[in-house]
Amino acid sequence: MARAFIESFNGSLRDELLNEEIFDTLDDARRKLALWRYDYNAVRPHSSLRNQTPLQARRALELFEGSAPGALAHAKTHDYQNQTRRLSL
User: Which tens digits make up the pLDDT trace of 5-26?
Assistant: First the structure.
């Protein structure tokens, strides 16, 4: 089951970032990956999570069970938000 999720993630990363962008430098690649990762985890809903973002699904699990498995997005989003303020495409 985990392999299916990994393959789905790899396909999304490839189709939405790697095949669409040209990376001028390693820093440019890191910036674009950080923006894509923020969008993937905090903005875009996933059908496998009942059309919630991974961040929303994690918060719902934490409310329901008191904690969430490490496989879901981390609750701390300030790292992503701070990165995206400094980053641009």
Answer: 889 889 999 999 999 999 999 9
**Under 8 Å CB-to-CB from 50, ≥6 apart: which residues?**
57
Cα three-residue angle 51-21-86, rounded to 5 degrees? 75
List, in sequence order, every beta strand (DSSP E) within the chain.
Answer: none
3-state secondary structure of 78: helix
Both tokens of residue 12? Answer: 């999304």
Which DSSP symbol is given to 13? H
Can you tell me which residue has the tokens 């390693």?
26
